[in-house]
Amino acid sequence: MYVKNINGTSDTTCRCGSWLAHWQRFSGQRAIYCGAVSCSKTDLVGAHVQKGASSTDAKWHIYPLCAGHNQHQGELQAADGYQLVSANKSETCGG
Q1: What is the value of pTM for the model shown?
Q2: DSSP 37-62
Q3: CA distances from 11 to 19, 38, 43 (A)
Q4: How many domains does the chain contain in total?
Q5: Where in the sequence is the domain holding 21, given as residue range(s)?
Q6: 38-52 pLDDT, tens per residue?
């Protein structure tokens, strides 16, 4: 799967305390390493992403990435082990 980072969303917040906590809560997973293929960094954030260009899904999702990949522009290959979580607070944490 390919994802595209949505830059300029750092001011967006939710009730979970952080977007990484939001991702963990609603995915039921715990991230140890960056979700970008072949990246083993552990300085993780809950990044706002969209599915890659080959997808018709324009929704915003949260996905665990390292700080460096969170600044990446363009598409990057996401690891198969982590799932996308909706960034739409009305569908998840309500605020």
Answers
A1: 0.89
A2: TT-----EEEEEEEE-TT------EE
A3: 11, 28, 19
A4: 1
A5: 2-84
A6: 999 999 999 999 988
What's phi and psi for 53, nearest 5 deg? -60, -25
Residue type, 2: Y
Q: How many degrees, rounded to 5, is the angle at CA 20 between CA 8 and CA 22? A: 100
Q: Does residue 94 fall inside a structural domain? A: no
At residue 19, φ and ψ (nearest 5 deg) are: -70, -25
pLDDT digits (tens, 9 = 90+) for 61-81: 999 999 999 998 889 999 989
Q: Rounded CA gap, 4 and 60, in Å?
A: 10
Q: How far is CA 37 from the centre of its chain?
A: 14
